[in-house]
Amino acid sequence: MKIKTCRKCGIPKSLDEFPKAARCKDGRSARCRTCKSARMKEYRHRKIVEDPIGFRQKENEKATAYGRKHPEKTLLSNARTRARKENLPFSITEQDIVIPIHCPALNLELKRGVRKLTDVSPTLDKIIPVLGYVPGNVAVISHRANKLKNDATFEEVEGLYNWWSSVRKSNEIADIHNERQGNNPG
Predict the structure, then answer these.
(1) Which residues contact 147 (CB under 8 A, 6 or more apart)?
(2) 88 CB contacts (<8 Å, ≥6 apart)?
(3) Are residues 54 and 79 in contact, defined by beta-carbon separation less than 8 angstroms?
(4) Global pTM?
(5) HSE of 146 in the Cβ direction (CA atoms, 13 Å)?
(6) Which DSSP string corresponds to the chain?
(7) Facing residues of 51 across strands?
(8) Residue 126 backbone dihedrals phi, psi, to 5 degrees
(9) How far apart are CA 147 and CA 145, in angstroms?
(10) 59-106 residue pLDDT tens
(11) How far apart (Å, rounded) are the C-alpha atoms in residues 143 and 119?
């Protein structure tokens, strides 16, 4: 095991405790992860104190630009966070996420890279939720489709579809409306 001494705290530590840095001769940062993290926290705090509104606005702009440029990575990162929080399996990669032009469920044109979720935002759906984020169990669909599917089982969606189809076919709604208006066509 290789040992390196942190330039900031002066403590010798395992090379694994230093973040990767391509510019450094040994490929690792001069500061250990703990010291580097503390330095970044101090920097963020100083910037927030100096200009809280401007700092947050710049951070949001950076995140929005990154989301527009790398929507697959953003979907992947958000899914990883949800998987950890919900204690679900997670083994997909960026290659498992393909963002189509139109939502395969509702045929809505998907708008990529918008910071705020809208009905046409692409979202990563777990086809069978309990299986988690594993290859073959994810699809990119619109936020609207994902909201509709959210808590419903396949049987519930099928039942709703069957009922709605039968009501529309029998024109029951038009009959009820006409009765209420006093326009009974019979």
Answers:
(1) 119
(2) 82, 126, 130, 132, 133
(3) no
(4) 0.60
(5) 20
(6) --EEE-TTT--EEEGGGS-B-TTSTTSB-SS-HHHHHHHHHHHHHHHHHH-HHHHHHHHHHHHHHHHHH-HHHHHHHHHHHHHHHHT--B---GGG----SB-TTT-PBP--S-SS--TTSEEEEESSGGG-B-TTSEEEEEHHHHHHHSS--HHHHHHHHHHHHHHHHHTHHHHHHHHHHT----
(7) none
(8) -90, 115
(9) 5
(10) 877 877 777 788 899 899 999 999 999 999 999 999 999 999 999 988
(11) 5
Which residue type occupies 138? V
Question: Beta strand 138-142 with 12-14: parallel, antiparallel or unpaired?
Answer: unpaired
- Determine contact, residues 109/142, Cβ cutoff 8 Å: no
What the block records as the tokens of 86 is 């919900």
> How far apart (Å, rounded) are the C-alpha atoms in residues 92 and 132?
10
User: What is the percent of the chain where pLDDT is above 90?
Assistant: 48
- C-beta of residue 89 within 8 angstroms of C-beta of residue 134: yes
Residue with tokens 């299986």: 131
110: which 2 tokens? 């998907």
